[in-house]
Fold this sequence. Notes:
Elements: H1 2-9, H2 11-39, E1 42-43, E2 50-51, H3 60-65, H4 70-77, H5 79-112, H6 118-126, H7 133-144, H8 149-156, H9 172-196, H10 200-208, H11 213-224, H12 226-241, H13 245-250, H14 258-268, H15 272-299
Antiparallel strand pairs: 1-2
Helix pairs in contact: 2-15, 5-9, 5-12, 9-12, 10-11, 14-15
Amino acid sequence: MAQTAENHQNPARWLIVIxxxxxxxxxxxxxxxxxxxxxxxxxAISMPPYTPQFKGFADLGNFLSQxxxxxxxxxxxxxxxxxxxxxxxxxxxxxxxxxxxIGYPMALxxxxxxxxxxxxxxxxxILPFWTSFLIRVYAWIGILKPEGLLTVALQAVGFLGxxxxxxxxxxxxxxxxxMVYSYLPFMILPLYAALEKLDGTLLEAASDLxxxxxxxxxxxxxxxxxxxxxxxxxxxxxxxxxxxxxxDLLGGADTLMIGKTLWTEYSGNRDWPxxxxxxxxxxxxxxxxxxxxxxxxxxA
Length: 300
């Protein structure tokens, strides 16, 4: 009992608990409330380009009296932004499914490889992180453009004629290729962590009982790897929804995603209140379903 009371009074114990909450409060909640405040302001020709500006707690009453939800109403009534949100969710969902279909077999092969070569395979997965993300996306421009390396390679092996070209650059297909390539390590690593812990004796027991390999996979391997599937899917789906660089460089004019729309409003139109409203809605669209899912998981 004395030891338990001493643990409760130990300052280091409380410091370990408080530090993560302080980190979230300073680097997540505070920026979020700043963006939310700007989203409720009005556009103005000034620096910064919005009013009112909250100057302190003494101005709180005046600040609250001038807030309005006009920007959120505009987003809900303009089909451009609705389409951008819908297209972003569509591209993120398809990309996540493709990542799962490609990443799961790779993670499973890594988990079942001899333990002596697993570190090497893991290093090969992490290796792209050693190169700039922007440079890797620009490299895909050289590969996918009509006169690029893909066209040259297909012409060399006879799949295309001398005057034919691969016309997937500046399309959704190029965006999907860029998304899958860029985010594949983020899918593989959580899956590998879940599959590597899998008890192999369960599969041996299933085989001894006459269970075919495909059925053992769906009854044992896949259910036990669901935490990795969910983690990898969330890690990929969330940033892909707000992705800006890949759609801007590889996508065409019809590839409308909310990240590009937000950048246009913030930098091009200088409409910080509307851009902030776009960011707040995007955050809510992503966070609320995750919170509901986690709540259901805890109840289960």
